[in-house]
Amino acid sequence: MPAVSKGDGMRGLAVFISDIRNCKSKEAEIKRINKELANIRSKFKGDKALDGYSKKKYVCKLLFIFLLGHDIDFGHMEAVNLLSSNKYTEKQIGYLFISVLVNSNSELIRLINNAIKNDLASRNPTFMCLALHCIANVGSREMAEAFASEIPRILVAGDTMDSVKQSAALCLLRLYKTSPDLVPMGEWTSRVVHLLNDQHMGVVTAAVSLIACLCKKNPDDFKTCVSLAVSRLSRIVSSASTDLQDYTYYFVPAPWLSVKLLRLLQCYPPPEDAAVKGRLVECLETILNKAQEPPKSKKVQHSNAKNAILFEAISLIIHYDSEPNLLVRACNQLGQFLQHRETNLRYLALESMCTLASSEFSHEAVKTHIETVINALKTERDVSVRQRAADLLYAMCDRTNAKQIVSEMLSYLETADYSIREEIVSAEGGHPSGKYAVDYSWYVDTILNLIRIAGDYVSEEVWYRVIQIVINRDDVQGYAAKTVFEALQAPACHENMVKVGGYILGEFGNLIAGDPRSSPLVQFNLLHSKFHLCSVSTRALLLSTYIKFINLFPETKGTIQEVLRSDSQIRNADVELQQRAVEYLKLSSIASTDVLATVLEEMPPFPERESSILAKLKKKKGPGAGSELDDSKKDPNSEINGGMEPSASTASTPSPSADLLGLRAAPAAVSGVPASTGNLLVDVFSDSPSATSGLVPGAEENFLRFVCKNNGVLFENQLLQIGVKSEFRQNLGRMYLFYGNKTSVQFQSFTPTVSYPGDLQSQLNIQTKAVEPLVEGGAQVQQVLNIECLSDFTEAPLINIKFRYHCPTCQGYPGLFLRLFVLALE
């Protein structure tokens, strides 16, 4: 493209710039600029018409003043006039001024668009490129409306020059990013894919950027690009640096294009064509081989270009997750970067290995680097690298190394940065120490140690989990009571430790009461010494522990009643504490021993559910979540006995009287799903003939509960929980249905349908609001039903719920039919 030659130099502009640079103060600069602005304004308003050179010179001065940070409120029309010039330098300055100073709301946009249309139709490649650059720089919606259909035609036209094709592709990419709805998909989409075979590497590079963006929204329209991208990548990878001299960067042929092609291939699954797939595997092997070769240059640019291609190739290998040999080789290659002197390379290696650890083919290879990763966690200066090291330890953890990893994480936690403590605590409480625990006394020790070291970062889910384990394991209850009693004797004790201690001693304090050092009165005094330091919720839990003590240790009754009777409790400003104190005092006074034992009996084992900590971590970690879920299905013993707790978002919340110690637990599953080696995508509630034969087991019993209440759980099993909240006034009612996904996988095609048995349709009018067809794991969606009673009715409406979800070990579930309780009042 022609450049401004010395002959076209503007002496007046050079003098003005020199004057500005020579100003001694800000005031002098402003004075000189104001003088120049006045001169330019007079020239533009003068009677004498300015020639193209003068316009160009003055517009350049205005542009320079604007770049110095001063506002420019005139000269725009003169810049637009320059667009009609046939001289390149004048047209170039006009487009430059417009690209910088004209905004998308300008009144001049229509004039500018007309000038651009003229240049695009001129077939002069230089003018066409200037116009395309201006469109891309402004990128307004008005320009997209005007040119979105014209630019694709220029891009795929056979007589368009390479430089114009390159500019057109990038311009179209810019318009698609700003106004995707205005870029029409048409026959040009199939033709733009063939630009990957263009001889001009610049055109190919621009086309790959465009296709990579377009295919994310319309993958089917561009799926033919896979074979062409593999072919082009193969030619680049197998070429020598001398073959692509114009596009070789520090002995690396076309590094930017290679990276873009590898990213484009990550938008699609592995090629189905065996020949294409074989050629791609060969390319990836060549890239891994070249990474092992000695560097051809010591300059950092060479290693950066080489490593950029390597990491993008590894990302593609991980994306496919189908070539065991490549996955292991990629892991070994990344292992070499773990001790590299360049911080960025160590970070990228750790990040990529986190994803590799989730693959069954490369998990063992990742584990071989455990010592290096632990060392990185301890010695890295950069906190982000330490974060990735902690993530990798979490990802590589399994039954063989859980104790080592948890021990190292606990050791590191004492000196860890506050920014990553919470995530480490969640990981330790939910995954390594929980999922792979075999010795449950070790698990209890680990969690209590975790609370001691980083109690502020221990969420409720973590201590819920340890309570659940202790209640479900008879063999660890005595040890847990003894351990927590000893932990509470520390002078400074975290509130979460008090919660755990209060709960466990309230349930199993009798198991250590035989030792004079932990007699009932000693246990009570120890807990009560922490009472005044705790929050309201913890005090409420401790009051529940005290009433449990009266049942376990009758000899403590008088002491505890005095505490409950004290003004600080029975007249407490907090309603919850006051109510508990009054009710517990009354209960301990009037109830017989048998009644007290029945009301305060030991908590039953918790039902098996997925740990809410694991569910949160899976959602947060992303790529590894699926593998962990599959792992838990492959190894039924991987969960602790008593297993999985309800997800926080779907667990039902019993009243305080149902669970005196305040630990929320969802009711047990109503029914199970029969195991089978069915399809990967399962219709859980299929349209089988048996589906309509009757209600699901337990539905009638749940239905009758709503005679006396307006809200509660209508149905629950290990997949789904359905809650109901309803309100009725005269013949009108509104019902809220809450569908909770209790799994960690997504429900698809989720469709609840209301049906009317008999003549009910003429008696009831029910308007239902549609629900989202996708329900994420652990999430809850709401559906609103507006109900109008038209006449007396005796039948209840039915709701039929169908959905599909990904479960390799499950098969179809009979159709789920439930009755909805509808009340009409006169």
UniProtKB/TrEMBL annotation:
Positions of the UniProt region annotated as Disordered: 618-658
Residues noted as binding a 1,2-diacyl-sn-glycero-3-phospho-(1D-myo-inositol-3,4,5-trisphosphate) in the record, renumbered to the chain: R11, G12, K43, Y53, K57, Y58, V59, C60, K61
Membrane topology: Peripheral membrane protein
Domain Clathrin adaptor alpha/beta/gamma-adaptin appendage Ig-like subdomain: start-end pairs: 704-808
InterPro entries: Adaptor_Complx_Large_Subunit, AP2_complex_asu, ARM-like, ARM-type_fold, Clathrin/coatomer_adapt-like_N, Clathrin_a/b/g-adaptin_app_Ig, Clathrin_app_Ig-like_sf
Organism superkingdom: Eukaryota
Subcellular location: Membrane, Coated pit
GO CC annotation: AP-2 adaptor complex
Major localization class: membrane
UniProt entry keywords in alphabetical sequence: Coated pit, Endocytosis, Membrane, Protein transport, Transport
GO MF annotations in UniProt: clathrin adaptor activity
UniProt-listed GO biological process terms: clathrin-dependent endocytosis; intracellular protein transport
Record field: compositional bias (Low complexity): 646-658
Family of this protein: Belongs to the adaptor complexes large subunit family.
Protein's recorded name: Clathrin adaptor alpha/beta/gamma-adaptin appendage Ig-like subdomain domain-containing protein
